[in-house]
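Notebook, p. 212. Picked up where the previous page left off. The plan for this session was modest: take the two constructs that came back from the sequencing core last week, fold each one, and keep the raw output in the notebook itself so nobody has to go hunting through shared drives later. Recording the first one now, exactly as returned: residue sequence, then the structure token string.
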Amino acid sequence: MSKDKLAKKNKAAKKDKSGKKKDISFSPDELAQSITQAARSMRTVLSHNLATSGLYAGQDGVILALAQEGSMTPGQIAQKLGVKAPTMTRTIGRMEAQGFVERSAGEGDGRLTMVKLTDAGLKSVEHINASIADCGARAVDGLSAKDVKTVVKLLRAIDANLQPVELID
């Protein structure tokens, strides 16, 4: 389907100040750009909030995953967060140098490297959760509870549409 046909299909009627209906259309490009920009803005605000505790972008996910699971291998963390293993190995090295995590040999299999939170890492969980809550509150400022529910529902549907399709054998 062409962009023009999609734009016509996606037209929504909305009333202007005089009460007359006006047509508002959008393209899939605008949707993708809007979602991407909103995600960037949220990540920027969250990163700024986290920086006060010495955390960098992406480290909050590692800490929250470890807080939930206890200890994990770097590969398990990478899979859970949807990043490549070498990226996770570098992140863990940096976090270990900062004192948030520590590595040790796996119990029963010394070939496995396990990662767990240190006391500093555990203490940062509260700050991360507060930063996430603040960022979320800023993002929905001026929106009704119904609007927020609708946005969450629509974003979940978009995310589901973009997930890889499982092939049937």
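Okay, moving on. Second construct, recorded in the same format:
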Amino acid sequence: MTEFRMPAEWSQHDGCLMAWPTREDLWGSVLAEVKEEYANVARAIAAFEPVTMVAPPGFGEDARALCGNGDSDGDGDGDGGQGGVTVIELPLDDSWFRDSAPLFVLDGDGNRAGVDFRFNAWGRKHHPFDSDDRISGLLLEHLGVDRIPSEMILEGGAITVDGEGTLITTEQCLLHPNRNPGMNRDRIEAELMSRLGVTKVVWLPYGGLLDTETDGHVDGVCAFAAPGTVVISLPSDPDHPDYARMRANRAVLEATTDARGRRLEIIEVPQTAFADIADGEIEVSYLNYYVANGGVVVPVAGVPQDEEALAVIATAYPGRKVVGVRALAIAFGGGGVHCITQQVPAVRTAG
């Protein structure tokens, strides 16, 4: 049996997948604003690697008008080149490809496949979600990539991997009864190991307290930045709702080793960002960034803390250009830059 593993996000990409926002019952009065933000994220990433934007049927021209269009044939293989955003149309319910798109894995020869986990809209919070449950398989068919099925419900935002056998997740999310009530912790670990090629799962107790949409995805908490290195949100304000929770998470990371027995270096992001939108206050998570070829695209809120957070993140990714993109409307919908993107790792070629 061929063995696959999920590479780290900082590995070389053939491109990035995104989905165009159209769900009026989610976005409401900020729909026009969030389309601009998605387009800005797509263009920021396209400065580093090709982007394929998937729009629901009939919305392709809407996406092209704001994103621009690459010169590729729309097959998602990256031939649009750096700077291009290619738009294709496939049936969608929503626009969070970190969670509904495939999780790509590579075998020992560098061949690519996609793991098609089930999707239930974060515990059936939004309806319908049947098209998003099917989009992973449709994308793999469109891209000509082999499909590896799994009956477990899993969103990509619930995990971070180092590409060397270690996966970090949160108990708050993966053990929530609205995902896989028939699977205990051991069975969930076994499925992660089987499908993603990891050998050690690190369980943090908490996601964000305010993250009621995803029930505490890890991509608002921490991310591997390199083998043995983790960037973690650690609010400096004692009144922040996650002040104690993130310190409990840090204690777990301090006490653990990765799959290769290394102690973890921890880089703290103490900055937090709150801003007003649609007559309410939202939090923009700096940790919810996307690592592209040669760059890191980070959600920002237009507040003084932005520059401080970008500087900390830059220390974690030496040699990469760190770019901030305003993401208030995206945060209003419950996520950040990482939530709306999915990397397609490069296939290794002979020679």
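Notes on construct two before I forget. The longest strand covers residues 146-153.
Flagging for discussion at group meeting.
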